[in-house]
Amino acid sequence: MLILDNVLVVLVEPQHGGNIGSAARAMRNMGLCRLRLVRPRQLLNRECCMMAGKAVDLVHSAEVYSSLEDALEDVHVVVGTTSTRDRQESQLIHTPREVASRIAACSPLENVALLFGSERSGLRDDHLARCRYVAAIPSSPRHPVLNLSQAVVILAYEVFTANREEGRDWCVASHREHEEMFAQIREVLVETGFLSASHPEHIMRSVRRILTRCDLKP
Hints:
- By secondary structure, the chain is of the alpha/beta class.
- The chain folds into two domains: 159 residues, Alpha/beta knot, CATH 3.40.1280; 37 residues.
- Helices cover 39% and strands 14% of the residues.
- It has a seven-stranded parallel sheet.
- The chain starts with 6 loop residues before the first strand and ends in a 7-residue tail after the last helix.
């Protein structure tokens, strides 16, 4: 079954150091230890270290990336998060518990990333298109938006409690291998005239959403 050491928390463009520290503390509470940051605005400021508490070592050991693609290169299963107010009919949205039960069945050879967007705008459509699963935390319509670290602790808790199921004995294709496949698909579709060479991403985003839901082998 999946082991918690294989679960990464990836914060995309976090704006406040305090939220990074709080997310690290939430991770430590739920047995997670791998934090990745994509273009953080702040990092090791006083507020970050104070909010991290005894999990400050997770902040010090966090891997920082300049692009999401680089941060996900060795990841096999990507789980994105979105607000309930941002639900789209074209995208299947799971609850945290539903998505946790799915990733709990992953192979111990696979890295799983829990992906969280910035406090200001969340994950963009092109971010979510890279995700096999998308989760939304049910919340009151009067105030549906959670703090970043609150979202982290809820997802991490569900992963922690679901981590008792047996998983696969084989490893799915990594994010890098997926990107190589999508590059080849894009090239063929442009060459055959199915895609416009000047605007291929609109249809490619739909192709991504379909294929990233599958357990593709390398």
